[in-house]
Amino acid sequence: MPSHSPRNMLVTGGAGFIGSAYVRLALADPRLERLTVLDKLTYAGNRANLDGVAGDPRFHFVQGDIADPAAVRTCLTGIDTVVNFAAETHVDRSIQDASSFVLTDVYGLHILLEASRSAGVERILHVSTDEVYGHVEHGSSSEDDCLLPRSPYAASKAGGDLLARAYFVTHGLPVVITRGSNTFGPRQYPEKLMPLFITNALDGLPVPVYGDGLQIREWISVDDHCRGIHTALTLGVPGNIYNVGSGHARTNLEVTLRILDLCGRGPDLIQHVEDRKAHDRRYSIDCTKLMSLGWHPERGLEPALAETVAWYKENQNWWRPLRGRADFVEHYQRTYKGTSTQ
Ligand code: NAD
Ligand code: TYD
């Protein structure tokens, strides 16, 4: 299969955590002629995430919804390559209200797939997640395992993932899908475990560990995840799915203790709180297939975590305003039953 070389890209959800890191990676290639970000700027989207590329004449930003056919159609003019990061992404929010998840992660993706088909794009990569496999008690999930999502977030992502594959099978749309594991790094909205616990710890606030904290996640640095996505986009075969993981499996308690230590705090800040409903105990993915394309994770968990903590220490002007916003405070109080964010 010849490699695919993007020239004119549309990156949806490019103002979010992983999408903005991917935009920086893609623009580092001088062969790329133009890159447009289409992002709705939900609570999780942040123009500041793209500050570093704002001066690049090849970069363009459009605020809009992937579920809006007219907006998507306009953005697709002249595009040969689409990479879709746009999604509602937080499990706890999906437990509280799944509507926006179904609208964006399933219906929005449907609009994007339909418009990409009409526009005749050469390649579309859909970013999915290891959570579509559901809880894995033993061993590791491979790409042809069945999907058994257990949270509304994972179920909406699984719906989108299957729809994307169906567009390849039915219409021949050149779709590639990646299923990445838990990702961490700079610019992650402070509702997910790592940025929430780091920013709480820096302020000396308790860190809310769900249940016994022995749930296992496979942590991948955002740089390794983005390189994996780019490898699948450029070297992957349409119609195929590629897991993107790191092999760095840790319990939440192990990660929490390390974060507290890096923030100069002790285990006394750990507060065990009521467990998340239907909390998946363990995820683990087999990445042999993506590795056969030449990709492998490069970042050790320990140095990447230390760099991440250092980034949040040094970039308080990025996260303090986010934590001060009404939507963050409401989410926090709803999720952690009235606990204060200060
Ligand atoms: P994020 O929540 O930080 O960013 C999502 C972005 O999508 C935001 O900029 C938001 O404004 C935008 N968006 C949301 N709805 C939109 C819509 N309808 N139209 C246009 N833009 C919209 O998410 P993230 O952590 O960067 O995740 C990106 C993708 O990677 C998601 O598809 C997610 O499911 C997947 N993923 C994430 C992880 C992880 O650990 N964070 C792991 C595996 C896969
Ligand atoms: P999260 O970052 O929300 O990612 P996901 O649920 O998509 O894996 O959570 C990672 C793990 O951390 C998960 O097992 C839930 C747990 N967790 C807590 O214990 N406390 C928290 O406040 C949060 C946000 C997560």
Find the CATH topology of the largest domain.
Rossmann fold
Instruction: Please state roughly what percent of the residues sit in beta strands, choosing from under 5%, 5-15%, 15-25%, 25-35%, 35-45% or over 45%.
Output: 15-25%
CATH architecture of the largest domain: 3-Layer(aba) Sandwich
What overall geometry do the principal axes of the alpha carbons give?
A: globular
CATH superfamily of the largest domain: NAD(P)-binding Rossmann-like Domain
Helix count from the secondary structure assignment: 12
Fraction of helical residues? 40-55%
Mean pLDDT: 97
Oligomeric state of the chains?
single chain
Q: Please report the total strand number as a whole number.
A: 13
Q: What is the ordering of alpha helices and beta strands?
A: EHEEHEHHEHEEHEEEHEEHEHHHH
CATH class bucket of the largest domain: Alpha Beta
Low-confidence spans: none
Spatial order of strands in the largest sheet: 3-2-1-4-5-6-11
| Largest sheet features | 7 strands, parallel
Question: Whole-Å distance between the termini?
Answer: 54 Å
Which small molecules are bound? nicotinamide-adenine-dinucleotide, thymidine-5'-diphosphate
Instruction: From the alpha carbons, calculate the radius of gyration and give it in angstroms.
Output: 19 Å
Taken together, the total number of domains comes to 2
Counting helices, strands and paired strands, the structural category is alpha/beta
Overview of the molecule:
- The chain is α/β, with parallel strands linked by helices.
- It has 2 domains: 8-183 and 218-244, 3-Layer(aba) Sandwich (Rossmann fold), CATH 3.40.50; 189-216 and 249-281 and 301-335, UDP-galactose 4-epimerase, domain 1 (Alpha-Beta Complex).
- Helix content is 40%, strand content 16%.
- The protein contains 12 helices and 13 strands.
- It has helices at 17-27, 69-75, 91-96, 99-119, 152-171, 193-202, 222-235, 252-262, 288-291, 301-314, 316-324, 326-335, and strands at residues 8-12, 34-39, 59-63, 81-84, 123-129, 175-180, 183-184, 207-210, 216-218, 220-221, 241-244, 249-251, 270-273.
- The strands form 4 sheets. It has a 7-stranded parallel beta sheet, with helices on both faces. The chain has a two-stranded parallel ribbon with strand order 7-10.
- α1 crosses α7 (222-235) and α4 packs parallel to α5 (152-171).
- The model has no long low-confidence stretch (mean pLDDT 97).
- It binds nicotinamide-adenine-dinucleotide (NAD) and thymidine-5'-diphosphate.
- Nicotinamide-adenine-dinucleotide binds at residues 12-13, 15-19, 38-42, 44-45, 65-67, 85-89, 104, 108, 127, 129, 157, 180, 182-183, 189.
